[in-house]
Amino acid sequence: MKNNKASTMYLLIVFILLYAPIAYLIYYSFNAGGTMNQFTGFTWEHYQSLASDTRLITIALDTLRVALLSALAATIIGTLGAIGIYYAKLRRTQTILLSLNNILLASPDVIIGASFLLLFTLVGFRLGFYSVLLSHIAFSIPIVVLMVLPRLEEMNTNMLTAARDLGASQLQVLKEIILPSITPGILAGFFMAFTYSIDDFAVTFFVTGNGFATLSVEIYSRARQGVSLEINALSTLLFLVAMGIVVGYYFIQKQQRQRKKTAQIDPTNHEKAVTP
Questions:
Q1: Cα within 13 Å of Cα(260), Cβ side
Q2: What is the pTM of this model?
Q3: Once rounded to an integer, what is the mean pLDDT over residues 234-256?
Q4: Alpha carbons 42 and 26: distance in angstroms, whole number
Q5: Quick one: which of 11, 52, 71, 94 could link to 194 by a disulfide (CB 3.0–4.6 Å)?
């Protein structure tokens, strides 16, 4: 009992430390005083100023565009890569591929950003939207692989054997058995890649060119000129978007669990699905 109370108190302290700065930032986004030193009154002025800042809105839309496209591409490539690693015939090959994937995850963002900058410079690739997009796809793929692989390992191999015994082709097995089984991992990989893309600064800072920027780079540039509560307003909106993504992912996961329970109650669904 004492251990449970201690664990609860510990978690409570951790959450307070994590969310207190965010609450502080949101609170002062409504400050009429224009600074974060003293709250003088409630106002929507900073949100109205944000709405009229066409440059920042354009950058926000570009950031979302990069995040969605890179997350989608990384999810497709990473899912296929995870399946390839899982079904690698030689154990040594599988270990080498996993090690290469984990090295990219463990590598500092500064090193990755500098490497991409050097690569784009050597091949004469113009820095801008596409250089940022390709970089985000590249560093998001290992994240997707890491999310999908555990789902593949948890997959019921008896279902695969049964599907092949019933005459299902490899494409049918992939479409009707493997992909539905690892869908939660695929979704988790997509959302993680999307979040990492929006949040990334170090890699993006190296590969952005003149005339293109993401929110992280723009906020950094503006913060150097002085704290503006317009940034607080923008950060508040981004936090709400992140919360919406988390809530949406929760409901998707819940729906997936309900479908899994239904499939377990009626196992004939899979037999019907793979019958050629």
A1: 13
A2: 0.79
A3: 80
A4: 12
A5: 71
